[in-house]
Amino acid sequence: MVKKPEKNRDVVAPQMEAEGDFVEHLESQSVGLAAAVFPVLEATNRATETPVVWRKVAQEQGRRAAAAAMWKLQETLNSPASLGPVGRGDQGEPLWPPGWLGSISHSKELAVSVVGLEKDFRGLGVDTELWLSPERSKRVRRRITSEQERAVALPVFGSEAYAVTAIFSAKESVYKAHFPALRRFFGFDAIELVKASATQLHFQVRWKPLRDLCGDSLKVAHWSDRSSILTCRVW
Ligand SMILES: CC(C)(COP(=O)(O)OP(=O)(O)OC[C@H]1O[C@@H](n2cnc3c(N)ncnc32)[C@H](O)[C@@H]1OP(=O)(O)O)[C@@H](O)C(=O)NCCC(=O)NCCS
In angstroms, what is the span from residue 87 Cα to ligand 1's centroid? Predict the structure, then answer.
């Protein structure tokens, strides 16, 4: 269960707020998935926290979440795939032990990992973001989203800042899920949000190499609590 953070209490929760047991939500996406969430802020000394310290702690907690999720899946499936450390590739991507695949994300609040076996999935991508403030959202919205995409997401998320955060997170999840197969960078206009519901974001794939890989459309699941949104792409 993700603990409710002390800060951001004043942030109005989006309409579709789901009390966030993110692990349960992630694992409900598919049989053969395991997930783990570890706190980040609580693992730092708040008084002396610097961006460098925070990043190091977040990365360590992300690796712990990955190890915990792999351990859990191996126990559940009695899988022969052996556990091992998760490395880092030259493009920042996690390098999983043989037979495994997965994804890692961290924010100032939490680190999350979702894992599965290569025989069951082609790619997994997870992302968590703290809700953007309206000011920050205004600064970044045009780089990440189109006006049309924001209009699609607004009725579900209740404010433009929440809508921009959600689209951003979903696109990051898609990038993480597909990069290992594509081995190519792709930008925020590679996919376009065309439909949004309380649990899923539906995208049309605009960039041909990605379309060749996974088809014309794709879905990303989302959940949120007062401080964060979590998105996950499974394919
Ligand atoms: C790589 C990227 C997605 C990471 O997202 P982020 O929000 O900055 O950071 P997060 O904490 O959520 O995720 C970091 C984790 O992503 C993973 N990651 C980094 N690069 C990756 C890649 N190329 N492929 C898959 N996973 C990657 C790593 O596990 C990393 O954690 P670690 O360093 O502890 O191992 C982001 O920095 C980026 O480059 N985005 C631009 C590309 C994009 O999103 N395009 C949109 C396509 S629709």
Answer: 14
Is CATH 3.90.470 correct for 22-127?
yes
Taking the C-alpha atoms of residue 116 and residue 100, their distance in angstroms, rounded to an integer, is 6
Phi, psi for 172 (deg, rounded to 5): -65, -40
Q: Boundaries of CATH 3.90.470 in the chain?
A: 22-127
Whether 50 has a pLDDT exceeding 90, the answer reads no
Question: Contact, 136 vs 120, CB < 8 A?
Answer: no
96 lines ligand 1 (CB under 6 A): no
User: Residue 112: how many CB atoms within 10 A of its CB?
Assistant: 29
* H or E stretch covering 191: strand 191-196
Q: What is the separation, in whole angstroms, between the first and last Cα of the chain?
A: 25
pLDDT given for residue 78 in this prediction: 76
